[in-house]
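Ticket #216: bound-state structure for FNR.
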Amino acid sequence: MHFQAHQRDALYDIIFNRRDVRRDFLPTPVPEDVVQRLLTAAHHAPSVGFMQPWDFIVIKNHATRAKIKNGFLSANEASAQMFEGERQTLYRSLKLEGIEEAPLGICITCDRSRTGNVVLGRTIKPEMDLYSAVCAVQNLWLAARAENLGMGWVSILEDQVLYDTLNIPEHLDIIGYFCIGYVKAFQASPDLEQVGWQNRRSLEDAIHYESWQPDS
Ligand SMILES: Cc1cc2c(cc1C)N(C[C@H](O)[C@H](O)[C@H](O)COP(=O)(O)O)c1[nH]c(=O)[nH]c(=O)c1N2
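RESOLUTION: The complex was predicted; output attached.
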C-alpha cells in the first residue's frame, strides 16, 4: 500500500489534534462496533518478539467506575500534598480524570510471562514487554482521536484499586486506566500548557545531531 499525500496529512492531523481529555465528556455511549475498531487498532501495535503482552478490560458499568473514581480521589489527595504553595493550589484546580463522566473505561494490562521467559528482543532489556504494551496505548489513543473520541490516561491511582475492582490476576502488570467518550470539544493545546503548568519543549532542544548536546 502506498499512501497518498491526503492520507499522510490525515495521520499528522490526528497526531497533532490528539489530546489527553479529562473534561467535556458527553454521556453518549460508544457503539460496540467502534469499541471493537479501537481495540483492533490497539491489538495491532508492535510488540517485542510479537509477544502481544496486553489485555484490554472494557468497563461500562457505572458502579465499577465509581469505585475507581474513589481510588483516584484518595491518590489525588496524596499527590496534591507532594506539591508546595502556589503549585499545590494550581494542582488542586486541575481536572485530572473523567472516570465517571466518560461512558467507557479501558484498563490495559501486561502479561510479562506471556510466551515464556526468553523472548526475542527482550533478552537484554527486560522492560521491552512494558514498552510494547504502551505502544498499544498509543494506537488506542490515535484511533480514538480518528473516531472523534476523547481519551484520557489516569495514572493517579494505586494499582491495587484496579486489581481489586477489576479482579485482575496478580501475575499481570497494570499499564493504565483510560477514560474514553465523545466530547463537547477538543482543546487545541494540552490543558497543562493552557494553565501554565508546563510548556511544550522546543523541538530544537529535543533533537541532537551526531551526539547528545545540552539545551541551548
Ligand atoms: C503515561 C502518562 C500518564 C498520564 C498522562 C499521560 C501519559 C503519557 N496524562 C496526560 C498528560 O498530562 C498529557 O498527555 C500532557 O499534558 C500533554 O497533553 P496532550 O496529551 O498533548 O493533550 C495524564 N493526565 C491527567 O490528567 N491525569 C493523569 O493521571 C495522567 N497520566
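RESOLUTION NOTES: The chain is about 40% helix and 15% strand.
TICKET STATUS: resolved
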